[in-house]
From TrEMBL:
The name this protein goes by in its record: EthD family reductase
Chain ranges of the EthD domain: 10-88
Organism listed in the record: Kribbella capetownensis
PANTHER family reported for this sequence: BLR8190 PROTEIN
Pfam families on file: EthD
Molecular function as annotated in GO: oxidoreductase activity
Length: 103
């Protein structure tokens, strides 16, 4: 599995961010080809001190090629272009292969 992780610093208008993100941005995300699952939260907390992030999003893809194809697709380009409509505090985008551990 390959994960896309998006971290959002505090926006200038948190209420607009939440409303726009849920009602307009996430419906665009669900149209990305190859998307297996996604999760998000506005309840981001640091274990110590103040968190540098307002929201977090993660998406699962079968592998890096599937994620790259999704992000390069017309739907993926639309998702990327839409970020400027709500993420006034900026955005940090990362991706990585998921490795399983044992207990």
């Amino acid at each position: 599995m390959h994960k896309l992780l998006v971290l959002y610093p505090e926006p200038t208008d948190p209420d607009h961010f939440r409303d726009y993100y849920v009602s307009k941005h996430l419906p665009l995300v669900t149209r990305m080809p190859g998307l297996l699952a996604y999760r998000y939260s506005f309840e981001v907390a640091a274990t110590q001190g103040q968190t540098p992030y307002f929201a977090v999003f993660e998406a699962d893809f079968a592998d890096a090629a599937a994620m790259t194809a999704a992000r390069s697709s017309p739907q993926g380009r639309q998702v990327t272009a839409d970020v400027a409509n709500y993420a006034t505090g900026g955005v940090v985008v990362m991706h990585f292969p998921v490795l399983n551990g044992t207990c």
